[in-house]
């Protein structure tokens, strides 16, 4: 655990997510929730054979890591008095997190089969949108980093990373334990969500971390890459044939 006399310096706390000024951004659809996507199906149903679409991806991200409500309940943290101020607001999300800090960054590495320009995107949780950090199909780098994983035969990947200071400023030496629990909580939330919607999600926890970190532009002294989630993506609908020229 953290030292017994340790008190977080709330004035020195970092942003709750990364900020990329000036990059192109794309709002995500909410997607909604299917009527048969019940909790029971998510917990006990069999993984399906369906494929992701942009509305489904947007819905999964919104339901798991998007901002869902303002938290103002009385609790024991020493920052309680600042929570009513907008600049110090605390927001709830669909996934549990140690201390409500949510230090995980979600990147989407998208290839040619996706609906957007191939590249690397970062999920901007406050605005429920994608920020494009790199344009170009670099999914071959992710596949190479994953090695022989059978589920890596795709060109769509979610990559989960952690900025350690987003958690360590509060939990000190307990931080690594806390962030690994956060990773597990988010992955299981996604698995439950996917089963409830007739989808299947695999997870890679063993891969060439430095290679993916370089691809995402991460500093290994500040950020760690913890998991890669390959996505089975729905094939785009065929384009309608052009009408014939009248004779």
TrEMBL record:
InterPro entries, per database record: Bacteriocin_Proc_Enz, Nitroreductase-like, SagB-type_dehydrogenase
Lineage: Bacteria, Bacillati, Actinomycetota, Actinomycetes, Kitasatosporales
Name used for this protein in its record: SagB/ThcOx family dehydrogenase
GO molecular function annotations of the record: oxidoreductase activity
UniProt-listed SUPFAM superfamilies: FMN-dependent nitroreductase-like
Tree of life domain: Bacteria
């Amino acid at each position: 655990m953290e030292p017994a006399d340790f008190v977080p310096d709330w004035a020195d706390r970092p942003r709750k997510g990364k900020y990329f000024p000036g990059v192109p951004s794309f709002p995500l659809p909410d997607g909604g929730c299917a009527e048969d996507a019940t909790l029971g199906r998510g917990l006990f149903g069999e993984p399906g054979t369906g494929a992701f679409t942009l509305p489904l991806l947007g819905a999964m991200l919104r339901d798991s890591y998007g901002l869902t409500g303002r938290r103002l309940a009385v609790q024991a943290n020493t920052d309680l008095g600042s929570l009513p101020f907008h600049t110090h607001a605390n927001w709830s999300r669909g996934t549990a997190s140690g201390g409500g800090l949510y230090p995980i960054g979600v990147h989407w590495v998208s290839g040619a089969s996706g609906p957007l320009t191939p590249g690397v995107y970062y999920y901007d949780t406050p605005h429920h949108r994608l920020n494009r950090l790199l344009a170009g199909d670099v999914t071959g780098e992710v596949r190479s980093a994953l090695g022989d994983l059978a589920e890596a035969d795709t060109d769509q990947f979610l990559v989960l990373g952690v900025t350690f200071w987003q958690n360590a400023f509060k939990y000190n030496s307990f931080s690594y334990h806390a962030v690994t629990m956060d990773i597990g909580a988010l992955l299981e939330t996604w698995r439950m969500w996917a089963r409830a919607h007739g989808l299947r999600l695999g997870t890679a926890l063993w891969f060439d971390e430095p290679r993916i970190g370089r691809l995402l532009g991460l500093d290994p002294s500040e950020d760690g890459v913890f998991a890669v989630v390959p996505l089975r993506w729905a094939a785009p609908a065929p384009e309608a044939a052009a009408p014939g020229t009248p004779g």
